[in-house]
Amino acid sequence: MKRFFKYALLVALVPAIFLTSCKEENEPTPERQTDVEFQTLKTYLIDQNLDLDDILTDWVIPASSVNADLANFYVIDIRSADAFNTSHIPGAVNSTFANILTAAEGASGKTIVVACYTGQTAGHAVAALRLSGYPTAKVLKWGMSGWSSTLDSWSNNTHTLDHANWIAAPGATIDNTTEYNDPDITETGTGAEILAARVALLLSGSLRGVNATDVLDSPANYFINNYWASTDVETYGNIGGAYRINPLTLGAESFKYLDPSKNVVTYCWTGQTSSVITAYLYVIGYNSNSLKFGANSMIYDNLAAGGTKWAAVTTDLPLE
Length: 320
Description:
The protein is of the alpha/beta class. Helix content is 33%, strand content 12%. The chain has helices at residues 2-25, 36-47, 52-55, 63-68, 81-86, 100-104, 121-130, 191-203, 212-217, 230-236, 272-283, and strands at 60-61, 73-77, 93-94, 111-115, 138-140, 166-167, 209-210, 222-226, 238-239, 263-267, 288-291. The strands form 3 sheets. It has a 5-stranded parallel beta sheet. α2 crosses α8 and α7 (121-130) crosses α11.
């Protein structure tokens, strides 16, 4: 009798197991979820020519070019008041990062150049300015470190780490094909109103940066985007587990390959381009950070000399 009951129970369970297995195998892939406020902001930014590729057009200027035509630039120095009072570019005005939009009101039509210590916080500021009606605002390349050797904040931050999580050339970045949900934006209103609120939130914080060692030690804790051309990855390698989403624009919808549930870390050569990108991504709703000092903080000795590798100033420009 016991054998009969066991057999009957087995007969009853087989269809249930079969149906459950079929259900799991045929379960549809969840649809990508959109966010109303994000879509409102996205449409506004595209319509106003404020996509990321617009923001990254002619956004940086070398110190020599500023000095050669200083009267036609409005330099906003966002270093500390003490640093500014010690020495600054002639005619520059001092401002905090938080008050950059107020300081910009004094530009009187001149092209704004934002100066910081290294060109990285200035990247955040210029993103905010360009998203707020100052489309020609620029970062002073290398910050004040590129103006005078006496103000060098760069040289102590260049490193060759020889880390196990750096994949040697030709590299192995990941081509991401997963489409993630939109970031969740809580601000409401028109596109212009959402943008203004998000920029204000950016300016109420500080540099959204992370150290190279933190990322290299635990790359799985981040969604890492290598903002290089593929040929650069082949030449130098990449952080293990990094994606390479470049170009990155709203119009082409390549943003949807960024995971909004993770800390999105962008790295470039110097931390200056990635600083602009990081600020932009934060404004559109991502938890984003820039890898400080970029590749110069990881593989400095391996980089070819030129515009992407830090070199100390040999000719100091005027200060007051």
